[in-house]
Amino acid sequence: MSTPRKNKFFATLDTFVTVFGSAAAVSAAVEAGRAPKAKHLSALGIEPTAFRSIGR
User: I need a surface site. Which of 4, 15, 18, 41 has the fewest CB within 10 A?
Assistant: First the structure.
């Protein structure tokens, strides 16, 4: 009985860590004046082509 609950907990934790890590990576790239990686933008639900067109 505890296995499905444990798996759901770890899946949720993994999602949280992925989103938080992507947010940190995108923030650091923007502050450094670099373009963030597309995989980090996608993890945050941001279309990479749309992000690159900001400010043009």
Answer: 4
**DSSP states of 5-51:** HHHHHHHHHHHHHHHHHHHHHHHHHHHTT-PPPHHHHHHTT--HHHH
* Element spanning 2, H or E: helix 2-31
pLDDT tens for residues 25-39?
A: 999 999 999 999 999
Collapsed DSSP state (helix, strand, coil) of residue 53: coil
- For the chain, the domains span 23-56
What is the Cα–Cα distance from 33 to 41, expressed in whole angstroms?
15
